[in-house]
Automatic annotation (TrEMBL):
PANTHER family xref list: 1,3-BETA-GLUCANOSYLTRANSFERASE GAS1
Pfam families hit by this protein: Glyco_hydro_72, X8
Name of this protein: 1,3-beta-glucanosyltransferase
Primary location class: membrane
Length: 545
């Protein structure tokens, strides 16, 4: 009995010890110059990655399906997939949306034990930086910092994507400014929380005509300690090598040339074209692998194949037989044999001296609409809460669908009322409160209107959507509010503390995230840009407000 008892005890200790140890003990990966390196021995790290998320369309916000399942929260699925992932030499999985409220220990320890690292996107389908109506605001900030909080302790996390393909057509380049602001604030948050300094933040770009300007924009004006504004790595989603293509026809050669003087690592954040294959989507020959891990390695750090699970878009490498078993498609085997033959040249950090410097920023013109600086202001949830308490007229209507009319009315009456909430990435004009949530932004504007109309009771109604309140300013708010000033156009101090605690509104990260309903409310480019046009025509109609 004793023998068995102590054996069981020892086994339990071993298991829990192993669980804690594998993601604690795996060497972190760091960025140095243009490459990734293992921190334990300074040996270069190449990604052999797979996109790992079921039922997820990464071009997210266009899909009506806003639910997602967290691929790092299901230990049994990880147990099913990891042995197969190892068969194709996987050392990185890319996940597109995790749920920060779930526990990830089981999958993360299994992955670490298998030597597999993770890169996680920070958004989720209903909370992401939208291409046509971009913002960087408190809701997004809570989501992003929540994901960082949830994953930072695992040393097999390489880093995060602050955006994925958010600029996907020529008229969406302004969105880059908001993603870059997200990069800056996420990096600032990691530093302020004293999280592991090797955690990187990058962007994954679509292969669009503005690709070179995008790459320059995200790496230019890198800022300095305490205010780092550039990406740590650049992900490139590329589907230009289809079937048995080649270095020139796929434009891989051009990309290598373009990125040869880029200051940070570049890798394929998605690859694996399925077009034009006589054997159908699952017959990918993966002939690009020999080149990617061959003569491209001076410039590229490997890549992430799109994708693990078979879904509606036909890119999967395996089909699920049942919850415990998956079955590989033919292209899984092609990928395996291609990867089996590569042996990329390993550079040692000790013999490598980075020589590339930050590129020049693209200038604003017909093909590029994001000014390099100023970027959208830093998001500071505490500032927004302080501002709302300091108002004499607040919004009580919680239905965001009602807000556009009121915005139009107030901003149309006098644009000064809205200086604190305006945002235009092309001119670099941003109100200090433009990163607050819609209700708080509207409250600021309503209060400006109220003050500007001699505080008459009628000037704080807006058809019953607003109400007067007694203003208060906590001592912890005084400096924040004075920095921003009464017009709401001064400098925004950087947030301190955990996002969830500072939000001032409802409690948990989960609640903050859940309360956001995208698409209900579009006042951004659409309505805000239309003030002037709307104002004259609608003033009469708006008098009912
Ligand atoms: C460095 O460490 C990593 C992780 O343990 C290992 O995979 C790699 O082979 C090592 N490189 C060298 C040159 O020892
Ligand atoms: C929506 O996503 C969920 C979670 O991934 C999935 O279970 C469901 O099948 C999806 N629904 C549709 C209609 O695609
Ligand atoms: C870009 O053009 C498309 C199609 O005309 C349009 O739907 C979209 O709203 C435009 N986006 C922006 C930011 O102007
Ligand atoms: C923008 O980036 C976020 C964060 O990675 C992502 O979740 C979202 O799907 C992207 N939006 C679009 C429209 O692609
Ligand atoms: C942060 O760095 C950017 C880019 O160099 C610069 O434009 C901005 O003024 C800096 N902000 C602060 C507060 O120093
Ligand atoms: C890289 O390899 C491809 C295919 O083998 C070849 O066509 C190309 O010229 C090579 N490029 C360089 C820079 O060596
Ligand atoms: C989103 O991705 C799906 C699957 O890859 C594709 O069918 C669809 O056309 C994409 N939508 C947009 C707007 O890019
Ligand atoms: C930003 O300002 C410019 C110049 O006034 C204007 O042409 C553009 O439409 C504005 N953009 C938005 C999104 O309002």
């Amino acid at each position: 009995m004793k023998g068995i008892g102590s054996w069981a005890c020892a086994a339990a200790a071993l298991v829990s010890g192993a669980l804690a140890a594998s993601y604690d003990d795996i060497p972190a990966i760091e960025v140095y110059g243009q490459h990734f390196f293992y921190t334990n021995n300074g040996s270069q790290f190449y990604m052999k990655g797979v996109a790992y998320q079921q039922n997820y369309s990464p071009n997210g916000s266009t899909s009506a399906n806003t639910s997602y399942s967290d691929p790092l929260a299901d230990g049994n699925a990880c147990k099913r997939d990891i042995p197969l992932l190892k068969q194709i030499y996987t050392n990185v999985v890319r996940v597109y949306a995790i749920d920060p409220t779930k526990n990830h220990d089981d999958c993360m320890s299994q992955l670490a034990t298998a030597g597999i690292y993770v890169i996680a996107d920070l958004g989720e389908p209903s909370v992401s930086i939208q291409s046509n109506n971009p913002e960087w605001d408190v809701t997004l900030y809570s989501r992003y910092t929540g994901v960082v909080d949830a994953l930072q302790k695992y040393k097999n996390v390489i880093g995060f994507f602050a955006g994925n393909e958010n600029v996907s057509s020529g008229n969406q380049t302004a969105a880059a400014a908001f993603v870059k602001a997200a990069v800056r604030d996420t990096k600032g948050y990691i530093a302020s929380q004293n999280y592991r300094s090797t955690l990187g933040v990058g962007y994954a770009t679509a292969d669009v005509p503005t690709r070179d300007q995008l790459a320059a924009y995200f790496a230019c004006q890198p800022g300095n300690a305490g205010n780092k504004t550039s990406i740590d790595f650049w992900g490139y989603n590329v589907y230009s090598w289809c079937g048995d293509s080649n270095y020139a026809a796929s434009s891989y050669g051009e990309r290598v040339q373009f990125f040869s003087d880029y200051p940070v690592p570049v890798f394929f954040a998605e690859y694996g074209c399925i077009e034009g294959l006589s054997g159908g989507p699952t017959s990918r020959p993966f002939t690009e692998v020999a080149v990617l891990y061959g003569n491209m390695t001076d410039v590229f750090s490997g890549g992430i194949v799109y994708e693990w699970f078979m879904g509606d878009n036909d890119y999967g490498l395996v089909s699920l037989v049942n919850s415990a078993s998956a079955s590989p498609y033919p292209d899984f085997t092609s990928l395996q044999s291609q990867l089996a033959t590569v042996s990329p040249t390993i550079t040692m950090k000790s013999t490598y001296t980075p020589s590339n410097s930050a590129p020049a920023c693209p200038s604003v013109g017909t093909s590029w609409q994001a000014k390099a600086s100023p970027l959208p202001p830093t998001v500071n949830p505490q500032l927004c809460a302080c501002m709302v308490s300091s108002l004499q007229c607040n919004i009580k209507d919680t239905n965001e669908a009602d807000y556009a009319d009121v915005f139009n009315y107030i901003c149309g009456a006098k644009s000064d009322f809205c200086a604190g909430i305006t945002r235009n990435a092309t001119t670099g004009t941003f109100g200090s409160y433009s990163g607050c949530n819609p209700k708080d932004q509207l409250a600021f504007a309503a209060n400006q209107y109220y003050l500007g109309n001699s505080k008459s009771a009628a000037a704080c109604s807006f058809d019953g959507k607003a109400t007067r309140q007694s203003a208060s300013t906590a001592s912890s708010c005084a400096a924040l509010l004075s920095s921003v000033g009464t017009a709401g156009t001064g400098a925004v101090p950087t947030a301190t503390g955990k996002a969830s605690g500072a939000a001032g509104s409802s409690s948990s990260k989960g609640a903050a995230v859940g309360s956001y309903s995208p698409g209900q409310f579009k006042y951004g480019g659409v309505v805000m840009g239309a003030w002037v046009a709307v104002a004259v025509g609608s003033l009469l109609g708006m008098l009912a407000l």
